[in-house]
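Reviewer 2 asked us to include a model.

Predict the structure of this chain.
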Amino acid sequence: MARPARRRGNLPTEATSFVGRRRELADLKRKLSSARLVSLVGPGGVGKTRLAIRAAAEVSRGFSGGAWLVELADVSDPALVGNAVMAAMDLRDQAAAAPSDPCSLTPSGGYSRLENLLYRLEVHDGVAKAAPTIDGPRFGLHGLKIKFQRRNASTLVRISNVSGAEFTVAPPALDPRNWFAPGFYAEIVSIHDDVAPRAALAPERLFRVALATDDRVVLEATAAQINATGVVSDNTWFLRLWDSFPDGSGLAIVSAPGNAAESAEIDLGDGLKIKLGGGAGAIFRRGDYWTGAARADDERGDAVAVGAHDAVVDRDRAGAGLTAGEIPGGEGLPVQRKQSASIGLNGY
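Predicted model (structure tokens):
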């Protein structure tokens, strides 16, 4: 069970003074000190509830959890008494069965963030498997390099000036929770990358952030490394924000040796892990990506649903089918229910 706030009871405030019943009140308090259950019996309207609430208020200081009032008058099914008690005490059953939604997890799934986030997982590079085409090489599953961002990699800012490894960017930061910071990663991207992805693969463009202000970002790179990317201040180059993996790196290398049907787990932190599928026949290219929502059930974050919502993948790729049903707009993208709060992703 989990209580959202440390309230010490829910007894109603007495609107009028409690008069008389001193003997009955003392007797009731004495019985409560030695018995787990005490029943007040009598005709309707004689004041049983008022006496019980008064006694509970006076003895509540002796109980660490306080005193709680549970109204059972409207409960006709004995099997629902427990639910009424939990509702009155603001308790949540964390052992509840998993919902029928295949993209959901039980409250004990393990997700530890309070925000509602949209994870983006994207292919960065890999081990060439097929002959390069006009839009770049194809990669196999084993050795694939993946980057990720918790807010759909939505932070993309224009580079207005480059000085060594220092970039002046625009527009400036609007949300400090979704901005460059030391330890995160920045990728130097061009508006031409989608039509000429081979150029983006030639030099490394993903660098760790060393320093950041509202309009300046300094990368952990030499001037030679920055110059090798080809970046210039002509309004066609941008910085995109990526998160770091729990080990501090900006890329995760997929392990799926031999004919493994799916990869080993890749830890995203915060109780979430992913797997890539498709086995030895899967083919990927730079820029293929998947998105999956991780959301807290309420403001307390004590329940979570993790779902896969979309995928953009190479249309000539071969691979495995789904493991948890078709998801509109996300061919080849299943979600596996795991108590360890995992997102399972398969290629096709």
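Residues 22-88 form one domain. The longest strand covers residues 117-125. We have added this to the supplementary material.
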